[in-house]
Predict the structure.
Amino acid sequence: MNGFVQQVQANCRIAAAGQVGFYSLCGMLLRLRQLYKWEQGLLPWQEGDPQAVLAWIETQEESWTDLEQENLQDLHWAGRRVDPFAVAELNDLLGGEGLAYGAGYTHGMAPMCFLGELWEVQKRRHLTVLILGPELARDLDAAPALRQGELIYLRTEPLAFYLWDTLSDPTKQNNIYLKIALASQDIDLAGLLRRPDRGREHFEALLRSQGEALIRHEIGEALEPALQHTLPVIVARFPHSRIERWVRALKDALADLNNWGRLAHFQERQDLPSLALLLAWRPGFYPYLIPELEPAFWELQKTRDWGVIEDARQTSLAHLRQSAAQLDEVLEELSGAPDETVAAAIEQKFITPLGL
């Protein structure tokens, strides 16, 4: 078993070396900080000695220089040689050992992989949800949830790091939606940040609710018919561009707002704190793609009528699906056109009207 773990750890180092160039400086520093904490066994709110962290980063960068052209290596298990991306086969082999393995591609189509303790297996429709505990191997990619075909992973350790870093970010602490979410659960953010040991129960409750929200997002993505074939085309033709970021945001918004996603889940449970956190932490294009949700939230605050959220969800979902269908039409009409022509058409039709 130790030999297999070491193989995955070696692949994680190769993956990290390939991911370095695809993050902003801020994003890179955040991921390095989280990776250091994980490697040193620190809790999300514990910080390492600054000099030790800097020395560790220097060592990582030196090792990545030698690995950046390498590919993930095949894994060996009980005399079998297995492709590192054969996640279904590897999880069949590892399930009896209480482990779960994931691999795929992240930003810039850079490879990623991880290995962790398997805490729980759930069946949701035809999908299998693997809930991971402490991780034995990981790279720079810090996605707390992801989907690989019919497998959905919830990585509780990266989720804890993400949640703590988001709560402790001073640039986000005055967000009105965050304040509403925490107040509705009687959480004193300043007290939690000051004494996380005393507020651990509240933090873990947030962790559970956000974990379920992420699972619902991945289910929504798995069952959403729109953009299934279009997204790979956009990623391949316009990598690292504003167009790629827009279509990924469109995909995520569809996953959240369809009948299987997290907004329908929040509405069914009348989960105001989770809805408020969704609004508090909307990234990038998200507020521009679902403008109906914000006024509906304030109407809910006044009336306590969750019907306004359902109306906003249905209206937004119709607009999003219309955009997805129109994007398919643009790609079909310009199938033989140069990338520059296609990019200009997408910008003009979809992104410029957003006021961006």
Q: What stands out?
A: The two ends are 51 Å apart (CA to CA). The chain has two domains: 2-117+132-142, 213-354. The CA atoms of residues 226 and 324 lie 6 Å apart. The first helix runs from residue 2 to 19.
